Amino acid sequence: MGNLKQSIFAGLFSTITISILTFLTYKTGLGIFLLASFGSSMVLLYGYPESPFAQPKNVFFGHLTTAAVGLIFLYFIPLPIFLIIPLAVGFGVGAMILLNITHPPAGGNPIIVIIGSVSLDFLLSPVISGSIIIIVFAIIINRFILKKNYPSQKY
Predict the structure, then answer these.
(1) How far apart are the first and last CA of the chain?
(2) How many structural domains are present in the chain?
(3) Between 56-76 and 109-116, two packed helices, what is the crossing angle to 10 degrees?
């Protein structure tokens, strides 16, 4: 029964959080707040908030680091796309692990950056702004609604 409750709450709160990002993106002139990899972040933030990969530091810096790596490869590595995408993903994953900021959903950010040929503004919106919003929602929902110890003090 605990798994059913966990799955219902994770689905519900994922819907709410992504709904807010979608509303901000499509119904206001404030910018872009959605990033495809945020959908995967929901799995960790609401399904497994006790995981070290779901901690705010990992979510924020994991997304920021891998998006920045994608931008570096997009703008400064003059190789064909079929080479820069796997290299950027590899460097991004390696950087997260080296810096102890691993957030698995962020591993896809270099692909999004390179395929989308995004500008440097992408770091601010959606990466930084969206990451802050999902972290704030995760803290509020996990700590105050679900009464979980989030963020975890052991990481």
Answers:
(1) 29
(2) 1
(3) 40
- Does some domain include residue 62? yes
- Is the pTM of the predicted complex or chain greater than 0.90? yes
Measure the CA angle with vertex 142, ends 139 and 144; round to 5°: 85
DSSP string for residues in 123-135: GIIIIIHHHHHHH
| Cα within 13 Å of Cα(11), Cβ side | 6
Q: Say if 140 falls within a structural domain.
A: yes
Which pair of tokens denotes residue 87?
């290299």
Give the Cα separation of 93 and 87 in Å (integer): 10
Per residue in 88-138, pLDDT tens?
999 999 999 999 999 999 999 999 999 999 999 999 999 999 999 999 999
Residue 55 burial (CB < 10 Å; 0-12/13-18/19+)? buried
